[in-house]
Here is the input.
Amino acid sequence: MSTPTTALPVTEQPATTPRTMQAVVFDDFGGPEVLVAREIPVPEVRPHDLLVRNASIGVNRADLLHRKGAYGRAYFGDADTMGLEIAGTVVAMGAEVQGFAVGDRVMGIVGGGAYAQLSRIDHRLAMPVPAGMDLVAAGAVAEVFVTAHEALFHLARLHAGESVLIHAAAGGVGSAAVQLAHAAGARVFATAGGDKRGAVLGCGADVCIDYRSEDFQAVVAQATQGRGVDVVIDFIGAPYLQRNVRSLADGGRLVSVGLLGGAQGAELPMDVVLYRHLQIFGTVMKSRPPEVKQAMVQRFAQQWLPALAAGVIRPVIDSTFALADAAQAHRRMESGASIGKILLLPEAR
Here is the structure.
């Protein structure tokens, strides 16, 4: 259950705000079946917080790891209830909040506590939902697009005219990365299962490689006349390391965002790194200090919110589940069949 905090003054908190809410919790680590819906206290609002009535909640792989015990009970200091991203309507806010008002539609990243009817979010991690954008769909924006922007542009410095290879391109972050890279004017190579080819090409990929039947290193070499790509965005880890490095052009940048295939057993071809002047970065959002997360969110918002409002980029939604059916949502993600984001809906629609 969520850890209560000391009550602090708020500028606006309607008397109708409930004292309890439905949330998804677990008593023991384990499989999806440990997730249960239960009434817990509504979180107290701190000076920088917005209290949001959630319209939708993004499901992330970090939630699966949390459920299995990878992070222990405390979810990076904010709540032991799981969940990293929300979209909804502000119902109360702290005394030091700037730029938002009760009634605003917001989306953003929380340090736990998303799997609930109401969540608190530091206003510096929140973004306005563009006018005309569906509020439920907005729950599929923050985690994936902020992560993709950080990898592609802040770390890899991708720009128009360059080429990028994006792995796991049908996933939440992958599909966001394909859209951002395409919108920025890059040539996009992407890997995905053959049954997801249409979805990946629809996001803006120029070349979709079926990782089950094709060798991405060979495809990239042939398509680039042996030059390689300027950037690789990788979610797989050790099994792809050597081929990722050998797929990079001179001065290329590899950004590791995930370890779906594991972290052990890979050998780094140091001669290729050395003589091609390569750079390798690692990035993860969930365990970063609050000020770093705030900077990441603001970088994305400043560059891409207009494109989101115009429909140039869009959240890709695989499926939605009622909040009480979070176990089914986790099973869907673990199946590997999803394309884009899985959302939980606290209210029936």
